[in-house]
Design a protein that fits this description.
alpha/beta, seven-stranded mixed beta sheet, homodimer, Metallo-beta-lactamase, Chain A, 2 domains, 18 strands
């Protein structure tokens, strides 16, 4: 069974509040390590409904300095402090967000027992900005009205699985198992060569998720997100508001779908809906005409990769 | 019929978020002029449910620089800008909040078409900080861990009502009506003196509302709030957590009730409940033992004075 890799939608609205949507926030749960992407107002309140553990958040990735993506951050940081967090928290984002984070900390919670470590990102570069043993996070330069970057979270390749029963059958000693995992054949004491393919089953495929909001369509994105399992792409407007989208550096649902198609991703999730749409099925229909495997994000949604 | 004077509860929880309560925020609607008191996270989302008009907010009164009272402010200010506000907005609060308001404006909405005018209040003084033709707002120094003031909103006395039918009966001319309103008797051309009491009915009683959060019990409060119609007083803890209340400069429900009793107010509304109480009926019971006319605040509640 593959390791856990889930995306929880906390909020998928845009700048104006509605009765239906919260501003942008998601949680990526990868092997029980929780990463927050963006943190719009109300995120900590909606978080309560997920049942996820506050203290398992290790990293927060912010896309850009617009209120609907960061006004929930102070409350989130404050609550973690009140709940007794001591582990350092890493916040990644375009450098113009550093002043904000530092100002809020200095003014509202100078005495909390945990460190906030801000990692300034150059939003114009596509590069690996964080990695651990099992995964990598890459920045995805987006085209918005100010420095803005999306994030690509992908697993590192793993080794093939050994077939326990074959290891036992050939009596392969423990010291040799890692070699088999790494691809070597096994030679029995009698000189018989057992090919690696009989001793292992293939490694789990590498999974990847990309979060792209806010942005107008950008060609490189398809290259960077090629073949990934899930693409979350903003679809603020319908085709009828294309000029509006262009003016404010946003995308229409069809444009989001065109990127998904060009990137040949497995699944597209659209969000960051403008408050003008009471019912987003119009956006869904427009996107599906271009990329059939499209879904509407909604608060409380949980997607397993 | 008296003029409109209503209090809408937007949030009445305390620092830690719960599934039930939002942090502190209220709207006072006095003759269709809306004033916000405190602005905790999520206030603009809950505001949507009140059906009140964003553009009718003229003043915001902030009590102190704790996140659960002010983290919803940036979103609120931002949304008013996006909705096209042009009228200046007055924000009153202890002076250490001025930097916060100015920082947020400069970083997140420098281009909005309305002015934010911050009025720094000396939280240690009980004084009239704002008045218009029909009402006054007074600061109420509170005892908290940092400069903090509550607010007393009271109507100005009005003139008696003239009795239309008596004015007509005596043929009192228009120029004399204001004199009658001001208390003068009327002398008919025949020399008959008609006493003022026959020409008027008494003025509406002056109504007043006080918002007191966050604070530990303070004696002067009873003096300043004597006989008012409605007192909102924080009741963060039950009697069992009295030490906790003292340590963090908060009140228990009984202490809030004792203040209401000493001030001889008509009605007490308690709020700012600690997240530890799943069910606040314990707080209500404790308060009612001291001051029977006590009510629990709740989100969406609307009280007419």
């Amino acid at each position: 069974m593959p390791q856990k890799f889930e995306v929880h939608i906390i909020g998928c609205g845009s700048a104006l509040p509605t009765r239906k949507h919260l501003p942008s926030c998601q949680v990526v749960d990868i092997r029980d390590k929780l990463m927050l992407i963006d943190c719009g107002e109300g995120a900590q309140l909606e978080w309560r409904k997920t049942g996820l553990n506050w203290q398992k958040i290790t990293h927060i990735f912010l896309t850009h300095a617009h209120g609907d993506h960061v006004f929930g951050l102070p409350g989130f940081l404050s609550t973690m402090g009140l709940l007794g967090r001591t582990a350092p928290l890493y916040i990644h984002g375009p450098s113009n967000l550093q002043t904000y984070v530092e100002f809020m900390k200095a003014h509202f919670f100078p005495d909390f027992d945990y460190d906030i470590r801000f990692h300034a990102i150059d939003a114009s570069l596509h590069q690996c900005i964080y990695e651990d043993r099992s995964m990598e996070v890459w920045s995805l330069p987006l085209k918005h009205r100010l420095p803005c970057c999306g994030y690509l979270i992908k697993e590192k390749p793993t080794l093939p699985h050994i077939r326990r029963e074959m290891i036992d059958f050939y009596g392969i000693p423990t010291w040799a198992i890692n070699r088999v995992k790494a691809g070597e054949d096994w030679t029995t004491p009698e000189g018989e060569v057992v090919p690696n393919s009989r001793l292992t089953t293939p490694a789990d495929p590498v999974r990847a998720y990309a979060y792209c909001s806010d942005t107008m369509p950008t060609e490189e994105l398809a290259e960077w997100c090629r073949g990934i399992d899930l693409l979350y792409h903003e679809a603020t407007y319908a085709e009828g508001e294309k000029q509006q989208a262009e003016r404010y550096f946003h995308s229409t649902a069809s444009q989001a779908a065109a990127t998904a198609q060009a990137a040949d991703v497995r699944k597209l999730l659209i969000g960051h809906f403008s408050a003008r749409y009471e019912d987003e099925s119009l956006l869904l229909e427009e996107a599906k005409k271009v990329f059939p495997n499209t879904y509407l994000a909604s608060e409380g949604m949980q997607v397993t990769l």
